[in-house]
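Bench notes, afternoon.
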Amino acid sequence: MNVVFIVVVQNVVERMRWDRVIARIVGSHWSGRRRNDMKLLVTWLKKDGSCRFWTNAEKVEQAAMSLVGLRGAVERMAADDNISFDAAWEKYFKAIRED
């Protein structure tokens, strides 16, 4: 099964219909008339700071794709701050709790 994690900025979404956005992202793997085994998780950040998402995945697949994105974000934080993954994980959740 192919799994794709995509982040879309709001200004792209405002100008296009979702079916066209998905068709451009996935290309020939997606058709509005037929579904295949490609699962998508599209997340976008709105100008007011809130987030939204769309997925055609099952709950377990959605959770797995989300965790892959979270792990990637924490790995980037660790590399940028030159700290371990565990330290970056704690720093990440500490920042969330403070908000």
